[in-house]
Design goal:
Layout (H helix, E strand, L loop, with lengths): L6 H11 L3 H5 L4 H14 L2 E5 L15 E6 L2 H14 L4 E6 L12 E7 L8 H10 L1 E12 L5 H17 L7 H11 L2 E9 L5 E8 L1
Parallel strand pairs: 1-2, 1-4, 2-3, 4-5
Antiparallel strand pairs: 5-7, 6-7
Amino acid sequence: MGNDIDRAGVAKAYARWAPIYDLVFGKVFDSGRQSTIAVADAIGGRVLDVGVGTGLSLSDYSPTTRLCGVDISEPMLRKAQERVRALKLSNVDVLGVMDAKNLAFPDGFFDAVVAQYVITAVPDPEATLDDFVRVLKPGGELILVNHIGAESGPRKLFELAFAPLARRLGWRPEFPWARLVNWAARHGGVTLEERRPMPPMGHFSLIRYRKA
């Protein structure tokens, strides 16, 4: 797949979203956020939250879960840092500006990697997923929540029509399930544990992979 969105464009788009992100997306994405956090907390240990954004999720994790958060957008991350200070979240070890495809962590460092609404907003989803798995311990889990494009029908037509605008806003709306299936088969080191529809209207999915 070609890189149909670019890193600079995504960073610029989310810098624009930073002042209003919580207001616009807070409630819409809440079910997916809470579901991924519940899975990560059940695993425990050290968790990486990729695309941590304004840190909206950080206070919902168990205080016994050790957290590292990264994001491509410095303005978003500044808000996350303010939230950590204001709420005295002592279980947050690191917040850093980082490219999701080139994580500055060693191999096998995390018990779980959480990526909420990230995969459709990166230039190279497959390479990004590869790096997520790289930093996982054997037996660790990759926990995604993401929009999955429709296979057919009116919603697919809408997603295709909306795609050029969506890219300018920082994501691709027509991301098909087949891309994840093909990635997992090519990678060979992960097993699909769960795919669960999420609100609103099942347009999003909670997706869990276990590293061999």
